[in-house]
Amino acid sequence: MLGIARMLKNRRGQALVELALVLPVVVLLLAGMMEFGRVFHEYLVVTAAAREGARTAAVGGSDAAAIAAVRNAARSIDRGQLAVAIEPGEAGRVHGEPITVVVSNPVQLVTPLISAFFPQNPYVVQGRAVMRYE
Fold first, then answer.
1. Which has the closest alpha carbon to 78: 110, 56, 51?
2. How many domains, in total, are found in the chain?
């Protein structure tokens, strides 16, 4: 009987050691999933904003109206460093030719261990949309 009680006590210590070994890996995976989710959300918002800007420019809107449409569509992200490029400009647009809108925004990676895997921090997320000028 005494041997079984001693064996149960030893297994409690074993579980604690296993938890100490596995917990950092689980926390790292969880943090990585959260960072990936943040970056993917920014990508989706930036791509949708580029699509809105391209549509505004394609139906005859000015560059200023297209940029305003991009900024309006990207309300859910920090728009402080949002960059918008429209090719061709208003003066060079020809009916039937494509208009390209590129929207980029840097995403600051906040998890220290995850940001070590990316050489570029903040990571620049870029969305591109091409539509025909009508």
1. 110
2. 1
- Residues 6 or more apart whose Cβ sits within 8 Å of residue 118: 109
Give the β-pairing of 98-107 and 83-87: antiparallel
- Say which amino acid occupies 112: P
- The pLDDT tens digits for 33-85 are 998 999 999 999 999 999 999 999 999 888 999 999 999 999 888 778 899 99
Of 103, 100, 104, 107, whose CA–CA distance to 121 is shortest? 107
Could you tell me what percentage of the chain is helix, strand and coil, using 3-state DSSP and rounding each to the nearest 5?
Answer: 55, 20, 25
Domain region containing 124: 2-132
* pTM confidence score: 0.80
